Amino acid sequence: MKASLDDRIARALELAKIHPSAASLLSFYRELAQFQTQVLADVQSNSETDVRGLARHFPALMELVHRSGTELLATFAAHHLTSTAAQEKLLTDCWEQLPANGWDAEPPARFFARVLLQPYAEYLASRGDVRSDGAGPICPFCNARPVAGVLRGEGEGAKRWLLCSLCSTEWPFRRVLCPGCGEENKDKLPIYTCAQFDSVRVDACDTCWTYLKSVDLTKDGHAVPVVDEIATVALNIWAEEHGYSKLETNLLGM
Ligand SMILES: [Zn+2]
Ligand SMILES: [Zn+2]
């Protein structure tokens, strides 16, 4: 069920051709996913269980950001991530603060932590016992918030799953229920679609004014939710212009 990093890289390449306006974002994402492939292989071969062990990948990540990332990220690294102690502190702080209330760290700190913690969390989740019946709004494995919804065909309709923003676990979640505040009144939960992205929609809530995008696999079976979510950044802009804030940002901070 979970898309491998290779699947994500291939999908990013494919979507860059379909949505040229998101090509530069997808190209940066692809480089990050390639980098995460090496981190994952390293975590697997060392059976890594201490987040501080991830600090050894900072030099390569900082080089990648310097080459392909934004000025904001490069400046943050140059000021705040110069020592191993600072790098380890960022990793442990973000890992320990993870629960439902989200990450307190500022966006560039979250970016660096998440690029490294994602493969680590995915590795742990792949070995751990995930309670897939967890029906709550946060990940039943790592407690992070969902980055997207996923709709899969089941019987007559489609069933919704939430996709963890950190460990990529998916868990079932009722379709008419806001993961931000628990609203269950259908009239308060508008769904927005647009012709340009017919397999991705905005699931909004007019009670807490949050939104999450859902990727509909019944409309595009080739979609890789985490990547299709990034490729449809135009929908985020639309939602935010209409007063909604995203429940959880993606790896790129959007
Ligand atoms: Zn998780
Ligand atoms: Zn809500």
Descriptive notes:
The protein is 43% helix and 16% strand. The protein is built from eight helices and seven strands; from the N terminus they run ααααααββββββααβ. It has helices at residues 5-18, 23-46, 58-68, 71-80, 84-96, 107-127, 225-231, 233-241, and strands at residues 146-154, 157-164, 170-172, 191-194, 197-204, 210-216, 245-246. Strands 1, 2, 3, 4, 5, 6 and 7 form a seven-stranded mixed β-sheet that branches. The longest helix has 24 residues, at 23-46. The two termini are 24 Å apart. It binds zinc ion (2 copies).
Question: What descriptive keywords fit this protein?
Answer:
seven-stranded mixed beta sheet; 254 residues; binds zinc ion; 8 helices; alpha/beta
Please state the overall shape, judged from the principal axes of the Cα atoms.
Answer: globular
* Uncertain residue segments: none
Total count of helical runs of at least 4 residues: 8
Q: Helicity range of the residues? A: 40-55%
Cofactors, ions and other ligands in the entry: zinc ion
State the end-to-end CA separation. Answer: 24 Å
Which secondary-structure class do the elements indicate? alpha/beta
Mean pLDDT: 92
CA radius of gyration: 18 Å
Oligomer: single chain
Beta-strand segment tally: 7
Q: In this structure, how is the largest beta sheet organized?
A: 7 strands, mixed
β-sheet strand percentage: 15-25%
- SSE topology string: HHHHHHEEEEEEHHE
